[in-house]
């Protein structure tokens, strides 16, 4: 009678535990990818709603000592002031399409005395030691800028050393330059008047949903596949046990196969035939000897 008692064995218990772990991990990873997809959709919705709107005066949405709300990021803002060229900050390690470069951030001093940090654009350079003196100058005198509002960067990359950093953070730059600055910064869209030499414009974010949907499906598919594989192997062993009483182990099967192969080898067959001939000859010799002895015995009794 077929039975599932084999599931109580140590081997199957460990197998089942491993499948549970794999199934949970793939379920969690799939959910994580779909959470990232939802976050990206929310971010894209904010960008679409903000990036093409009318520009708002920077002073209406930016405050000193306070960061920019994520809901306001990529809003268009405008500001008028004078660039403090001497306080230009280089933002390093800004690669575009595999090409090394830097971003150039310059404070725009407004009539209130508070500065708006303006990322004026990207400059291709292989010189990681580039200084503010190596970049094109902004327009002199009073300038009106339009641009997109950005949230401050975070982490160790915001450290400012010798007017150089790896991520823009208004608090860190303001302290390094000893200037009062608005929270957040502005990615430049246009300047009036235009500079003599322009930098490469800021790249707007891509608004696709990325690969998260298909990654999530992949993880869940792997989990379903693992569970299906477990039940298939369980059914296969149950069916095998029902046919022969106990499943044939792989090692036993290999030994039997090896013996069958050896029995069919030409050398083995020739050896067996030789042994058979020798046995037949020995039997004939024994019969001949026995016949000779009988004749000798008959001759002795007749005499």
From TrEMBL:
Location relative to the cell: Cell membrane; Membrane
Q: Which Pfam families match?
A: SURF1
**Transmembrane region positions?**
12-30, 217-235
- Membrane topology for this entry? Multi-pass membrane protein
Family to which this protein belongs: Belongs to the SURF1 family.
Name of the featured protein: SURF1-like protein
Where the protein is mainly located, per its record? membrane
Q: Which UniProt keywords apply?
A: Cell membrane, Membrane, Transmembrane, Transmembrane helix
Region (Disordered) spans which residues? 48-69, 260-303
InterPro entries xref list: Surf1/Shy1, Surf1/Surf4
Q: Where is the composition biased (Basic and acidic residues)?
A: 270-280
According to the lineage, what is the superkingdom? Bacteria
Q: Which GO terms describe its cellular component?
A: plasma membrane
